[in-house]
Amino acid sequence: MDSGSVFASLVQAPEDPILGVTVAYNKDPSPNKLNLGVGAYRTEEGKPLVLDVVRRAEQLLVNDQSRVKEYLPIVGLADFNKLSAKLIFGADSPAIQANRVATVQCLSGTGSLRVGAEFLARHYHQLTIYIPQPTWGNHPKVFTLAGLSVKTYRYYDPATRGLNFQGLLEDLGAATSGAIVLLHACAHNPTGVDPTLEQWEQIRQLMRSKGLLPFFDSAYQVVALVVWWITGGQIENMLGFASGSLDADAQPVRMFVADGGECLAAQSYAKNMGLYGERVGALSIVCKTADVASKVESQLKLVIRPMYSNPPIHGASIVATILKDSKMYDEWTVELKAMADRIISMRKQLFDALSARGTPGDWSHIIKQIGMFTFTGLNGEQVAFMTKEYHIYMTSDGRISMAGLSSKTVPHLADAIHAAVTRMG
Ligand code: PGU
User: Among the options 271, 337, 397, 415, which is catalytic?
Assistant: First the structure.
């Protein structure tokens, strides 16, 4: 009886391509069901993980009677903003020292991207943003709704399951001068394929020569680095990884800051601190001068105020507590290493299981790709088959979250992939 409703003519909207996978998974009564859709870390027991260091930080916050629940400023927690800028640009960043960086606390990675995009739509002279093909499914929606016009650049080559570097250079070379370019800072989602540092340097030179404005999305900082170290066989480095080498996966961003040019960076603490639901993130805009940075910050406040007024206090306080205490910071990196170790081990176990089954095709990308996801190369039909017959849930582009796997579930997944490839190949 909705005919009398003023909304009666609405059509039912489809579920989100990523978050909707969890909705479908939750409805499935099968005891063997497996959710490899959303990029969220799970323990070997398949449970969500709250880091010990996060629990400890929360305890400190709760016990501190001087803490109140007043509104934060529009730009968020000052300490959190400073520490976030340091984490991505480096403690000794000349841009930070010269006060050329405007940083505002936002609602995780998504909110940071959205605030950055709204700011650009109001104040930047070029409204076209180039995003990689493929990319995180929410990117085009965030940018379009903010008022930018979205175009794509080639990024991934399905034939080699690697970077289409030539295509990338051609497309950015042909881009409208001054356009905005969205770059994944590390651990590209969904492909797990990143440019090498040499390739980043070429991208930087090309972009600077055309006046293209870099907008970095950094949703996986640190997680990616640890994984990369282990896959690169440089495990001995792990021992020293709390002493500054953690900076390596922010390297592409820092290259673009070191040349003195401008850029934007959206940071998320969802994955690297496991603070998914706390919605903690930061948007930084690196400017040429302190004077410009101050004006940029004042305008960011005008973007934020009518959207949500000011950001929430709890998650940012957790992050600031951990980042400013060297002991807690070190503990954080140790816990990160444990998460990364488990993801690496899942990559190896899945690769071995497919090899043992003689599954047709080259599956070495499972151990080569970086970060939380494997971009399997399975097509939509094969994915649908695996969901129907094996109750395995993943995004229809064939991406699986390795962090959702465990030693117990690897054989089930390998059976499903084997069946999908041999029957639907
Ligand atoms: N940017 C990229 C590249 C991402 O992968 C994600 C999360 C975000 C930004 C946004 O993260 P926040 O939670 O807002 O900090 N992508 C995950 C999580 C699920 C989703 O789609 O939001 C994913 O599974 O792709």
Answer: 271
Q: What pLDDT shows up at residue 223? A: 54
Q: Calculate mean pLDDT across residues 354-358.
A: 97
Sign of CA dihedral 241, 199, 194, 219: positive
pTM for this prediction: 0.94
In a 10 Å sphere around its CB, with 0-12 CB exposed, 13-18 middle and 19+ buried, how is residue 66 labelled?
exposed
List the domains of the chain with CATH numbers. 19-49+341-424 (3.90.1150.10), 78-324 (3.40.640.10)
Q: Quick one: average pLDDT of 367-393?
A: 94
**171 given a catalytic annotation:** no
Integer CA distances (angstroms), 191 to 197, 202, 207, 318, 400, in order? 18, 21, 22, 31, 10
Which residue, judged by its Cα, is nearest atom 9 of ligand 1? 109
The rounded distance, in Å, linking the Cα atoms of 176 and 221 is 29
C-alpha 296 – ligand 1 centre gap (Å): 26
